[in-house]
Design brief:
The complex is a heterodimer of chains A (311) and B (55).
Chain A: H1 3-13, H2 17-22, H3 26-42, H4 49-73, H5 75-80, H6 96-117, H7 120-141, H8 148-168, H9 173-196, H10 198-204, H11 209-212, H12 215-236, H13 244-266, H14 269-274, H15 278-306
Chain B: H1 8-12, H2 14-40, H3 48-53
Classes of the chains: A mainly alpha (311), B mainly alpha (55).
Chain lengths: 311, 55
């Protein structure tokens, strides 16, 4: 075998920096960063800007580390699903051992440095979040129960609570409300996705609700969870995280979200096939706007209070 | 055979090495910045032993 033949093959498969970065699930990280930032900035405690920046960075790194550990464990599932087949491990760019090493190293790094930069309550919450996402969700529930999304969604709901704890050193009702908002939002968000990437979970034998209970049941679940979410989101407007901007945002977006969930409920599979899941896809896109807008509104209201515009 | 100064491996891995280098540089900057902020914060106190040892 010549050097040239060896090198050209190695070059094609060799991981670049971006492949290692992709292990950290940068798109998921944007949600983590934004909600943690809102938790940190909405807290009634002034945080030094650089410490705040570091806190968000370490929370993001911790979230990324759990993503790498998720890819390490789920490499077999990722390889058979079209949506995930191009991830670094199934694509042959990064080995499972590398992903495990990166995930563990960054987990320890993120927890220790968040503790040093802010406080050990925030660091403990970050450590628990990583443990919950990797051990409870990825290793245990994801392959065991169709409620995987519901319980696993808790992992994604922790970042605003960590941000709040990083600023205040405690957990209060505001942090819990932000947690609940993200927690309740996760199931309809992911079940809508599961409806229009239908074959993916069937092949991978992940017990998604669409596979175990059927697509009709999934549509019912989306509607029920959206009604519960809307109640929680609007009621939160009258708590300490609420304000006029939040109330207006919650009223508009929850009306749209409820309508979307109702439309999904009323449809059957033929309708969805005929327009290539147009309603389900638009509901999924709306769900992304929904969460960012709610947290953005919390941030604006807290800024208005801080600058004396609101009492 | 002596290793060429610019081996093909260097070119192939230049992006990766540059990325790692930038991450390490950012890490140093963050630790330095955090240290400055912590030392200048109101709550920062030198331990008494450390102060007297310097005299």
């Amino acid at each position: 075998m010549s050097d040239a033949s060896f090198d050209s093959k190695a070059y094609e498969a060799e991981a670049q920096f971006g492949d290692y970065f992709a292990l950290l699930k940068p798109r998921v990280m944007t949600l983590v960063v934004f909600t943690a930032l809102v938790g940190l900035l909405a807290a009634p405690v002034a945080v030094h800007p650089f410490v705040g920046f570091c806190a968000i960075l370490f929370i993001a790194v911790g979230g990324g580390a759990s993503g790498a550990l998720n890819m390490w464990y789920d490499a077999d599932i990722d390889a058979v699903m079209r949506r995930t087949a191009k991830r670094p491990i199934p694509a042959g760019k990064v080995t499972r051992d590398e992903a495990l090493a990166i995930g563990l190293t960054l987990s320890v790094f993120a927890v220790v440095f968040l503790g040093l930069a802010t406080n050990w309550l925030a660091a403990g919450l970050l450590a628990f979040t990583i443990f919950f996402y990797v051990a409870i969700y990825t290793m245990w529930l994801k392959r065991l129960t169709p409620q995987n999304i519901v319980i696993g969604g808790a992992a994604g709901a922790f970042p605003p609570m960590i941000g709040w704890a990083a600023a205040t050193g405690s957990i209060s009702v505001e942090a819990v409300l932000m947690f609940c908002l993200t927690f309740m939002w996760t199931p309809p968000h992911f079940w809508a996705l599961a409806l229009f990437v239908r074959m993916v979970y069937d092949i991978a034998t992940v017990p998604m609700l669409t596979v175990t209970h059927g697509r009709r049941s999934t549509r019912v679940h989306i509607l029920v969870y959206t009604i519960l979410l809307a109640g929680l989101a609007i009621a939160s407007a009258f708590t300490s995280i609420g304000g006029p901007v939040y109330l207006a945002t919650a009223l508009v977006l929850n009306a749209l979200f409820l309508k979307g969930a109702w439309d999904i409920y009323r449809r059957d599979e033929d309708d969805s096939e005929n327009d290539n899941f147009k309603v389900e896809k638009s509901f999924f896109k709306l769900s992304l706007l929904y969460l960012f807008a709610h947290f953005g509104a919390i941030l604006i209201d807290s800024a208005l209070v801080r600058f004396g515009v609101l009492s | 055979m002596s290793l060429r100064r610019e081996h093909e491996l260097h070119t192939r891995r230049s992006g990766r090495n540059l990325g790692v280098g930038l991450v390490l540089a950012a890490f140093i900057a963050i630790i330095f910045g955090l240290t400055v902020v912590k030392v200048n914060s109101d709550g920062f106190q030198m331990q008494s032993g450390q102060v007297t040892n310097g005299n």
